[in-house]
Give the backbone structure.
Amino acid sequence: MVVPGMGKYGQLRLINSSVLIIGAGGLGCPAAQYIAGAGIGTIGIMDGDVVEPSNLHRQVAHATSRIGMPKVDSLITHLRFLNPLPTYMAYPFHLTPQNGADIMSRYDLILDCTDNPATRYLISDFCVLLQKPLVSAASVQKSGQLIVLNCPPSPQGVFDRPCAPCYRCCFRKPPPPSADLSCGEAGIMGPVVGMMGVAQAGEAIKILASGLHLPPERRSSDGGSETDTERNLTQPTLLIYSYDLASAVGPYTFRALKMGGRRRNCFACGEGSTLTLEGIRAGEPDYAQFCGALMPPPTAALTPEERITAAAYDEARRKGELPPHVLLDIREREHFSFGGIDGAVNVPFGKLLMNAAKIKRDGGEAEEVLPPEARGNGRDTPIFVSWG
Ligand SMILES: [Zn+2]
């Protein structure tokens, strides 16, 4: 309370406010600890998963002794040790187009701590329609990002004053399905996602303590100026954290990109938007399809005769029934380092794609897609490809 700008009024606003944390994982765990520690009055936690051993390096509110427990119950157990005073609400299931509006409407501010694009768009659309500020973060491998959206909230389609953008204003299209890897598939560094979760809590506390989640007429002020913060939020900053020195981000650990304001042609918050709560509940728009989760599988490139199971390959090889061939393992280098089949040559699929793109651009022979060590003795050498 003695921090300048917070004061008694700020702390009272926190006690009287409520936060819904969607996702009790790598972002949700650190965020929830600081939200609970700050004395926010009501804290809702939503997640349909149970605690697994592979979660624990980053989902620091869970515990080895609580493996198998619903994450929501595990996190609330942890938070009660920290601060027993807030009201904790448990939602041990995933957010859906059907259950979202009812639950989210009970909260002042939403934290998106999920890890899949379809849910991000769903949460943002609900926030637009319910007029809730949204603190959104994401993290994978060695980088993370954070942005405050829809704050201060304003009704759908309003453009007579500067208004804050929604998630769709900033990210019109979802990432391609191939880039949408889960943390289990792509890997993730604990401190990176932790840093993003802590920053989410920081932004949420700032918004709630200054009353920016409320309409202007309901912000009882203790004399501080809020107009600058409000103006800045209508053109929010995308914070990017990365400690991957080899990436295009370069040597900068933190970067901040100024984003635009609300877009007139935004599907959710723009002029003439047809998005409604009733529509979402009835399945319009189709979030899974928008994000490509239900894209038809690619055309089968190989005939059944050209396929072989790992067990059949192993047996044929041990019996000496296979001709001289190249065994190509196309998993990423880190996966291959855990173990592979004897004699396999590791060329990650991404490298094959890059070689193919280079040949398409600069010309060259098709077999140059494979690096020399993976070509065998000429173009007649059979190639067995392993990716599992
Ligand atoms: Zn928008």
